Amino acid sequence: MGEIILVGSGWNSFLFRAEINSLVSYDKIIHPRLVTISSDSNINILSKAALLDDILFKAEIIDDCNISEKDISLLIHKWAVNNLPRGSFAIRTRKIGEEIVPLSSSSIERGAGELIVSRYNNVDLETPEHEIVVILAGLDGQVFHKNESDTLKTVVIWGLRRKISNKNEFERRNPIERPFFKPVSLDARLARLMISLSHKPGWCPKIIIDPFCGTGGIAIEAIIQGIDILASDLDPIMVEGTQKNLVWSKGKGKYTVKKCSIDNIVELWGGHEDCAFVFDPPYGRNSWKSDNGLDIFLKALKAARSINPNGTICTMLPTIPEFMLEEKSSNYLVMGKKWEEIEALINSTGWIISLKYAIKVHRSLARLILVCHPSH
Ligand SMILES: C[S@@+](CC[C@H](N)C(=O)[O-])C[C@H]1O[C@@H](n2cnc3c(N)ncnc32)[C@H](O)[C@@H]1O
């Protein structure tokens, strides 16, 4: 019958898998950037994903790394007899993984194409009705965050490409393209990823609350996917700027943007079931070390708990790149404090951490992505 395989973008395979797990949850990892899902019932949700490159249906998996181009072509042909619908087709081969698989993409495309072509299936490389995608996935040993799932293996897969609706055009929404830009502006892909991580399989927030909206990086990505946003910021210039950026984004979701300190956020928004909190709290190069930043962060967690006790949080804290070595994480500094202390403080506000993962910003700064769920 074949599998449904999701192909992750090369940016970060751990976060790709975490994102898929939040949106639909996956079945098996067959390579750090390839996971299977068991049903296509929630497939539309995947158009939200920031780190998903491709969806392949009726896919076949070969993990024999000594296979030749000729054997692959023969197997693709055998598979196509039962799985390729009538109509024009193209074969697209992609190589992924850190180690390049020493197989020729063009030989596979030519070899399989010649075998498949028939009066029912003609080749059309420009606008084919069907695309057979072949992935040659080389070894991928992530340097950071090595864990059991990041196994080293070479696999060859192929399947029928399902077009991803609204394939995200993050380039077009690059912060510097927006009418209102500041250096704090969150990158579109990262903002989109944070929103995805605030989902749970079977639960999509209808509203996102960002109490530190800045230039609206998170707000834009929410309304573009039709999720309503309640955004606020202490700084009136940011409030005005977010409004401008939201008009520019032409998103479908509804939005309200207010000037408000985190101190008054509960009074401002009241209770909201079905909302998730997604934010990056204030931290400057110097200020992130101060207790003030931590205070503000903890206030946001408490407010989130009272606005929706059943909600979720996705946030990001400044840390140092050494945090990326997971096994030593308890010793590292996050917002100027030892991680253990920060974790205890988060727990004291009624949240538990369900995911933590550091990404590098530059040589001396990393950001720690956190996903929190209610502790009871
Ligand atoms: C890191 S920036 C957020 C950037 C935003 N995600 C973006 O894409 O532009 C943090 C924001 O928090 C705001 N802020 C600082 N202290 C605050 C407070 N006590 N209450 C509410 N907002 C505050 C700042 O004005 C700043 O815009």
- Count of helical stretches: 9
What's the overall geometry? Answer: elongated
- Domain count: 2
Could you state the order of secondary-structure elements as H and E?
A: EHEEEHEHEEHEHEHEHEHEEEHEE
Question: Any chance you could write out the topology, listing elements then pairs?
Answer:
Layout: E1 3-8, H1 13-23, E2 28-31, E3 34-37, E4 52-62, H2 69-83, E5 89-96, H3 105-116, E6 130-137, E7 155-162, H4 188-197, E8 207-210, H5 217-224, E9 228-233, H6 236-249, E10 255-259, H7 265-269, E11 275-279, H8 291-307, E12 313-319, E13 333-334, E14 337-338, H9 339-348, E15 351-362, E16 365-374
Parallel strand pairs: 5-6, 8-9, 8-11, 9-10, 11-12
Antiparallel strand pairs: 1-3, 1-4, 2-3, 4-7, 6-7, 12-16, 13-14, 15-16
The protein binds S-adenosylmethionine.
S-adenosylmethionine binds next to helix 5.
Summarize the entry for a quick read.
The chain is an alpha/beta fold. The protein contains nine helices and 16 strands.
Q: What features would you describe in this structure?
A:
The protein has 376 residues and is an alpha/beta fold. It is built from nine helices and 16 strands. The strands form three sheets. A seven-stranded mixed beta sheet has the order 2-3-1-4-7-6-5. The chain has a seven-stranded mixed beta sheet with strand order 10-9-8-11-12-16-15, with helices on both faces. It is elongated. It starts with a strand and ends with a strand. S-adenosylmethionine binds next to helix 5.
